[in-house]
């Protein structure tokens, strides 16, 4: 059978699911089941990289690799349609890479009932690939939930001491967000010509031809903004995130904070902004203020006060979402491009930080920053990785994050100089907590508590099982830091078409 | 002189005798029910264990026959001189009730084995009630409707108090009897008022009365503001609201659900509720369409109150039978939204309600299936704490439970989510924004208690899992093959219907 590139998209979702089904019953010998799981994690990453290399240049706004199948709701205009455009491609690739890293890291972890843990991670991975590959809005939502459910279970079963409370809180917050956005999507479905195809391509043409009234646009955008915003931890609906990440097992935190959380932003960029331009305009100011004052300033200050390493990483990820929301609020092609770049970069860097904090915990038996110190002498490689990840997270040049933040600041200056100034000041905050954490863990004298732990069990440096996933993430961060064009070219082609289309219909650019 | 002219009565009999084919499934069920009693007498005591198997296989055979002859009844949609009307949704509901009774019988084989109770009568009554339920949803005449409904209700009086050694079961039976009789009285009074309002219409020697739905509908259409008819309609709705457990007629649910044997609770929760909705749908949209100005506001208030009450009351429950009963109340609320939306969006809302009912059946029986295995000899004592460590000791049952509860909670990509999605879409199209807001509120609350149940089964690290006595929970029943297969199928169907509706999806837009 001849496989075209488009057939690879459903495979990137199906293969992890198949692997999950094979691994889940736990009947295979441990080594074989690990091998199957590894293949399940690697397949989407390989497919993503392959499609990236095959992505046609100068493809303005359309969806190459289109693939669709009617699952029975064709009459309601809902069918499984997959495809990648310039916005989804970077995130699809990032999902593949972070998934591979999280999977590899899980393989060497000593989790109880490892086969179930791996199976849930594989289901999550399948859902994540589906989220960014979906063109149909309905399936976009379904895939997000498919990835979300395993998170709750993983937090509840394999999480830290407060896992039960954390899982419950996450579930309720994220359900509220999901329900609000569901109503927004239903409204969009009904108002956008119910019964017509419910995919991004057709919705865009339909709503360009007959835009919704201002009131409906405002209402629907508000629902979507707060709904998806909750999923991305928009202040003040963010409190589930640090708690949940603090308790989540490392691979689940990597996949959720790194990839799944980006779904809300992605949906806002792909659905809300292009389809509801007037609504976006009306909500831009409140969104920007919430993001800058709430996420960047307040949460930034809270992050500085953290003593627990994993909580600190969790709060910092909430804070960085503020920059993404600020870029969203600008609504220009440059701002959105910056958001997507930042989403990719942040996904890679926060996953790396969660991975490394767990590795640190394994050696120190604590997440308490005050109880650590001087680890660099014993584990130089781990220290090097952590410092690099911290630099990336702060947004130093040379790492992918730099380009994302820089572009957002440039775009935001035209939008509001005051907010931009506060946001730039936020970078100082992230430098303070990032560098302080690195210093407390790795440098200075060893504390007594740590000395007791290390005396009982001398910490070894990063093993290859931990090094490989960390290396994948760091290489990707550095590659994009030095060669952002690899992502910005497809992004430009997609975004150049999208905002302009608010004034002039670009029908030829839309692949039917 | 021809034979026909000579003997019109005989000819009428010959032509009417074809009508019996239309209710062949119900007739076969009745015969099967009697056959079970004969078997009990004829077979030696040792072989009585075979009888439930005969009942289940017989029902499966009837179900198969019904599926094969699905379209036959549409050739003559009205039978028995207007007593019955065979519609597409009616056929679907017949399948629904048969599926449900097969599953109730399966649960019965497990639950009854734990108590020293007469076995065979249970299956007998389930068959009779199911036949009556099937006639109920096809009835086209108030006399037919009332007789079928009473057959169902009387059957349930016996079933609810079936465990007569258990005081809670007897209490449940008494409560159900008194409140059931009250609701029947309300219904009957409403019917009589409607009958009186219509009077009699005589055309060419044929008498049409207010019992017949077409006559009643015509009368109501020509008198859209008749006070007597309006009062009758409200009373009829009240009688039906009792069946579906909508506020303010939900008061019996927690106690009756807790006291009744688990299979009977499942039967009440699924079949009885669904029958109520089928009747409500028929009455509101086919018989009383001229009185939508009256029925829709009542149903709207009822739906909102039902969702809010059901979810809030379920929050604090520790007994899982009460919990599932009250969560079932909230499901009635969501379904009521579908019934209301059908006034403006008939095609989508009808399909949505039917899809929701099927998804509810699959998920509910998955959950009840697990409940019968976790329950001990005291059927009314089923606490959340009994589920501690279920995922460790019985991973299969725990998975089934999680899928079932997830579907009830409406978590994608399970069937229950699709049901809610369709109802929400229909409601949005019908412009029921405030009901939609209430429904979303309800869904979010429901996550808390469904999740609490899942948490009890999955997250609690039971320390002494091997010593149930030490934990004060009953020993769990080992899983049988037949029930195991049924649970696998329920779980798979719940997942499959969530992601792949296939030809069922296109049925959604049918009338």
Task: Characterize the structure shown.
The complex is a heterodimer of chains A (512) and B (511). Chain A has 512 residues and is an all-alpha fold. Chain A has one domain (5-55, 72-504). In chain A, 74% of the residues lie in helices and 1% in strands. Chain A contains 21 helices and two strands. Chain A has a two-stranded antiparallel sheet with strand order 1-2. In chain A, α3 runs antiparallel to α4, α3 (88-108) packs antiparallel against α10 and α4 packs parallel to α10. The longest helix of chain A has 32 residues, at 333-364. Chain A is globular and about 70 Å long. Mean pLDDT of chain A is 82; it is low at 498-512. Chain B is an all-alpha fold and 511 residues long. Chain B has a domain at 312-511. In chain B, 73% of the residues lie in helices and 2% in strands. Chain B has helices spanning 3-6, 8-17, 19-22, 24-42, 50-68, 88-111, 120-138, 142-160, 167-198, 213-222, 227-244, 253-259, 262-287, 292-315, 320-341, 346-374, 390-393, 395-409, 415-429, 433-458, 468-471, 481-499, 503-507, and strands at 78-79, 84-85, 200-203, 206-209. A two-stranded antiparallel ribbon of chain B has the order 1-2. In chain B, β3 and β4 (206-209) form a beta hairpin. Chain B is globular, with a radius of gyration of 23 Å. The A-B interface holds A 71-76, 141-142, 145-146, 149, 152-153, 156-157, 163-164, 167-168, 171-172, 175-176, 179-180, 182-183, 186-187, 189-190, 194 and B 348, 391, 406, 411-413, 417, 421, 424-425, 428-429, 436, 440, 443-444, 447-448, 451-452, 455, 458-460, 499-506, 508-509.
